[in-house]
Design goal:
Pemi-like Protein 1, Chain: D; Beta-Lactamase; 2 domains; two-stranded antiparallel sheet; 5 helices; 7 strands; 29% helix; DNA binding; Transcriptional regulator, AbrB family; DNA-binding
């Protein structure tokens, strides 16, 4: 564990403020859930909670199935990183931070389809790739918790692929409720 040198007092309601620098670094936003752990040394540990933590394996298997059926690469994002990848090199994509445009689409609960070949950043600070894509937000209990994206370099995605991605986003959202 890494010490920050920051000390905070607990107020009369039992609350403690997580410093802005730490919230910014860890991308913790107002309303984000945090898990609370106590270890053997009686240290309290706060961990940013992602509903995908419990569904990581399931998300990967679902992504692999979509990739096989659609014959195009698929990525699943939580609110911070890529949690599942199929059709891309997993080690190059998994746990990479999401790009701003996907974060914005997700938070606005908007889908986006590119029917003309365009440059796109699939994870933050990645060299842009040229291709076509469809992205659909994953919503659970009214909150945007992630997104799913299908990508194709050579030709536009068909209506069936777009529908499959929308269904996958809806299904993954229901699994998290």
């Amino acid at each position: 564990m890494k010490a920050t040198g920051i000390v905070r007092r607990i107020d009369d309601l039992g609350r403690v403020v997580v410093p802005k620098e730490i919230r910014r670094t860890l991308r913790i936003r107002e309303g984000d859930p945090l898990e609370i752990f106590v270890d053997r040394e009686k240290e309290v540990i706060l961990k940013k909670y992602s509903p995908f933590q419990e569904l990581t394996r399931f998300s990967q298997e679902y992504t692999d199935s979509l990739n096989e059926a659609l014959k195009q690469p698929i990525l699943v994002y939580d609110r911070d990183v890529i949690v599942a990848s199929s059709g891309f090199k997993k080690k190059e994509y998994t746990n990479k931070p999401i790009p701003r445009f996907i974060e914005t689409l997700m938070l606005n609960r908007e889908s986006d389809t590119q029917t003309t070949q365009t440059s796109v950043e699939l994870y933050q600070d990645q060299p842009e790739m040229r291709g076509f894509y469809h992205i659909s937000p994953i919503v659970a209990n009214g909150d945007a918790v992630g997104a799913i994206l299908a990508f194709r370099e050579d030709e536009s995605l068909g209506d069936e692929a777009i529908l499959a991605i929308d269904i996958a986003a809806n299904f993954l959202g229901k699994q998290m409720e």
